TrEMBL record:
Signal peptide: none annotated. It comes from Streptomyces aureus. Keywords: Acyltransferase, Transferase. Its EC number is 2.3.-.-. Belongs to the acetyltransferase family. RimJ subfamily. It is an enzyme of class 2 (transferase). SUPFAM superfamilies: Acyl-CoA N-acyltransferases (Nat). This is GNAT family N-acetyltransferase. Residues 6-163 form the N-acetyltransferase domain. It holds the Pfam family Acetyltransf_3.
């Protein structure tokens, strides 16, 4: 159950340490789903650099002041494509409360209303049924399977591909 104590908001540079702490707390739970991360990834400096990456937009899921998850749009492309790729995770101690669905819905709303995107895509490991359920509940449809799509946890892994069309209007004018 999602309560008012939980918030999804745009990540800020001041969140870098709290994000690093959340990753370190969840490192073992995330390992089966993530690429290899260097040691700098789990530091405030590493997270500050990630927050500053161009072509991305990032959100944090919080419980009070504690960061308990992330949602990201990366590879944002404007022009006639107007698309981005979605990634997200929730702290292992907070799974099953509807937070992933809430975060994905908020990111899709912002992608449409604030960034003017037309499409958001996502991918999951073939056996990540929980994430597939989240995407389906948020209006994503599976459109294919990509062999050896991403290097995850030390090897190339097949992924199911999903997309959500956010609107049918023309691209926003610059």
């Amino acid at each position: 159950m999602v309560t008012d104590a939980f918030r999804i908001r745009p990540a800020e540079p001041a969140d870098a340490q709290a994000i690093a702490d959340a990753y370190l707390r969840n490192r073992e739970d995330l390992r089966p789903f993530e690429p290899h991360r260097g040691p700098e990834f789990g530091t405030a400096a590493g997270q500050a650099a990630r927050l500053a990456e161009p072509g991305s937009a990032r959100w944090v899921v919080t419980d009070g002041d504690l960061v308990i998850g992330r949602a990201d749009l990366s590879g944002i492309v404007l022009g006639p494509f107007r698309s981005a790729s979605l990634g997200y995770w929730i702290d292992a101690g907070h799974v099953g409360r509807g937070l992933a669905r809430r975060a994905v819905r908020e990111v899709c709303r912002a992608a449409r209303d604030e960034l003017g995107l037309h499409r958001v895509d996502a991918s999951t490991l073939l056996d990540n049924h929980a994430s597939q359920r989240v995407l389906a509940a948020c209006g994503f449809e599976r459109y294919g399977t990509a062999p050896e799509y991403l290097h995850i946890n030390g090897r190339w892994r097949d992924h199911h591909l999903f997309q959500r069309i956010l609107h049918d209007g023309p691209p926003a004018r610059p």
